[in-house]
Amino acid sequence: xxxxxxxxxxxxxxxxxxxxxxxxxxxxxxxxxxxxxxxxxxxxxxxxxxxxxxxxxxxxxxxxxxxxxxxxxxxxxxxxxxxxxxxxxxxxxxxxxxxxxxxxxxxxxxxxxxxxxxxxxxxxxxxxxxxxxxxxxxxxxxxxxxxxxxxxxxxxxxxxxxxxxxxxxxxxxxxxxxxxxxxxxxxxxxxxxxxxxxxxxxxxxxxxxxxxxxxxxxxxxxxxxxxxxxxxxxxxxxxxxxxxxxxxxxxxxxxxxxxxxxxxxxxxxxxxxxxxxxxxxxxxxxxxxxxxxxxxxxxxxxxxxxxxxxxxxxxxxxxxxxxxxxxxxxxxxxxxxxxxxxxxxxxxxxxxxxxxxxxxxxxxxxxxxxxxxxxxxxxxxxxxxxxxxxxxxxxxxxxxxxxxxxxxxxxxxx
Length: 414
Hints:
The protein is an alpha/beta fold and 414 residues long. It contains 13 helices and 22 strands. The protein has helices spanning 5-8, 26-38, 56-65, 117-121, 124-130, 148-158, 172-182, 191-197, 219-228, 253-256, 325-333, 366-374, 402-413, and strands at 15-19, 22-25, 47-51, 71-75, 99-103, 111-115, 138-142, 163-167, 186-188, 209-212, 233-240, 244-250, 260-264, 269-273, 276-280, 296-300, 306-311, 315-318, 321-324, 340-348, 351-359, 385-388. A hairpin with a 3-residue loop joins strand 11 (233-240) and strand 12 (244-250).
């Protein structure tokens, strides 16, 4: 079976995808895919097929058109500087692979991860049950399918014959308007996008689930979402491109245990070795060792809730003391008036210095922030500088654009 088979399982006149108000039924989408397949280059052996389109519909159509051919699709992020002739796209394709995703992780160096059909599809029944997805669901999401989370969520909804509505527009007012008019039942966005959505005028009782990745969530965002979508339940997951979903936490537990990422999904085995999280999962990418670690740090509490305390590389040595980026950011976000925060450790003559970037409508002055943080953090954990920004810059994948932050830091010295 292939992802394209999801199209033929549904009535041809049923809505499949809605992009900026334009509706495409499962039947119409299938016709577009067949037409695109007729124009694919023919290759004798499996080879990566880079998709550089930026529109959601074109990305999806080309991706599905590769099904059953030797072309193995990978959607390239819009901000990638790689050309289709780059040697990376000549990476040998494993026998079972039917797709690939492009990720840079935390290293900034692009890499290709290959997946079999089963590595996602066999998990769809589990994740759809956890996320309340069925044939009557309507998903609303924003952004490119180059973001693994968006692509996975799209196919998981298609597996149920649901409707997917998406936009590339970065306009929260438009998001809210479309969520209301489409009677969306699910919203999938990362917290940095949910924040502006939570502040828009309007509300919808149709939204039952708000699905989001394991970025730090604030009480202000959750409160705003509950006000706009009073019948919704927020579900925050923890996972990795290499592993798929690992665990999830929902509702009030998100704030009660701010560093917890919930309990593992069925079929996913999590262990802690030397403080690192190791995962064994049949839903992984091809050719990785098991158990696998992304070098995330964490622990299980007495009630078997998994807690994520940051990545190994995000634990800094500040004057001989270990400082967790995750811990510092979480406490900065607890400060009233701050809605977004990021932390960099930059070299100086006296060793590493912590620089905090903060955004919000009513960010307190530096003295107040330091006083508040002194109540929870050790003195060496408190940032050396606080730089106010309009918002934390993000890449097309939703991850923090650290190069942009370094540029802001450099400009602030001038």
